[in-house]
Amino acid sequence: MNKHKISHLAVIAMLAVGVVSCAEKPTEQVIEKPVNTMTLKEAYADKFLIGATLGASMFNTPNHPSLALAKENFSAITLDNDMKWALNNPLPGKYNFEIGDQFAQLGVDENISTVGHVLFWHSQTPDWVFKDDEGNLLTRDALLERMRERAKMFATRYGSRIKIWDVVNEAIEDDGTWRKSLYNQIIGDDFIEQAFIIADQEMPKDATLIYNDYGMDRKGRRDTVITMVNDFVKRGVRIDGIGLQGHWDMDIPTAEKIDETLTAYAATGLRLHITELDVDFLGRDGMTGADVDIQKLIATPENNPYTDGNVPAAAEEKFAVRYTDIFKTFIKHHKSIDRVTFWGVTDGDSWLNGWPVVGRTNFPLLFKRDGSTKKAHDAVIALTQK
Ligand code: GLA
Hints:
Order of helices and strands: EHEHEHHEHHEHEHHEHEEHEEHEEH
Strand content: 15-25%
Structural class: alpha/beta
Bound molecules: alpha-D-galactopyranose
CATH topology of the largest domain: TIM Barrel
Number of domains: 2
CATH class of the largest domain: Alpha Beta
Shape: globular
Oligomer: single chain
Mean pLDDT: 90
CATH architecture of the largest domain: Alpha-Beta Barrel
Helix content: 25-40%
Strand order of the largest sheet: 3-4-5-6-7-8-10-12
CATH superfamily of the largest domain: Glycosidases
Distance between the termini: 12 Å
């Protein structure tokens, strides 16, 4: 699979260095494509989808460079915010489809797999969802009906154009207990199960239905997720995939821990998706997890040292090694993994410029702010050539 027919790009490159004269026609000869001209999606084509999240500004800004990079380098896309309940349906009866529609169409036009993010999450969900016209909390049945309407609305609008759905996000705490969200308080401890029953009934039959969470390596959450999905499978409640967000930092979780975690989830027989990968280059200043609602910290010269955008070579190298270790582990488990999605395209797109420290210049992804590739990018591709 690493052999590629001479591609358009390779021919241009060869012309540029005088390897092929203009008069010559490219032959059908099979060549090894140089690693540095390969894209991530080409390099991983025989292993898993490689994805990135897109944001509204990429659709609203003409010729946004991240959009072009996404088309060229990724085989899956997720919309970062605009399908969340608060943005898509901020008030009863008011819907915003502009960005979602462009996103779904992009997937069709470019033949890129699309991920719907997210049907049911306690965060970025408006209060009205849980209340009746008088402001009283809904009954269990009324909330389940409202959830069903939302699933039906997306299924009707996008059908099979959206192939993968994060059905429930972050409903289990670090210690493995159910998160006491309004969903849980109103519906009860079977909220996740009910959400998957609704998704199974309303979403297209060929959609992949996923439970997604952060800190999936933590024992409490891991044990509960595994027990839950095994129980669902046993009782015929459809769930197709387990989503590990993968908001990691330079040291934690270790590659060994990731390995052990993937082994444990793979044993359920469900497909694994790494849904929101980034490596917090600057560190968390003591924060762990990815709870977007926590109080944010202030940027200082200590926690925000590279404001001019230049990272010392040694730190760039360390970052490449960290990504190499992570992707080696993914490759080891590639038979169980369907997709690895980065949260953002370039460093400039990343939420880690604003969390958990406000206003930092962070460097968590494989593409620099100017769209050029990092050492880590090439290292991740080079792994597939071994
Ligand atoms: C969580 C959510 C995402 C996004 C990221 C960071 O993990 O699942 O939708 O909000 O945090 O931005």
